[in-house]
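Batch manifest, entry 17 of 40.
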Amino acid sequence: MSAFKEIELGTEAVTFVTKSLKFGETLSKLVLEVIDVKRGRVVTKLPSNVDEKAANDFKSGGKLPRLSSGITNPEPVPNTDFFIVETIRSFLDASSKNICIFEDASARATDPFTKSLVTSVVRQTDHNLLLEA
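Output type: structure tokens
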């Protein structure tokens, strides 16, 4: 696989992230209320041969190379999960106060599995998100 480079995406990416968060549930909506997404940066890592115009094209995929396409020899879909894992691990290792929370956008409070969990509640106070056990 080719070398990867970090690309800072433009306003199209901020719009994309904002729209994606609007489709989320409680946590996503709270993030939109508390954080000014427009003041942030959106970065990604893509193969070196991907230019910025292609990186900012959110209507089409195909940014990562496919090794082959065949029914008899299926290949996993390429992804950049290893960069996400590296970024999260570095962030968590930097301080014992750092945390990382994921929202399952497909889960609902009424799902039998969700009801069986001992869950925590996220609530907003001022400009902080609190996680209560």
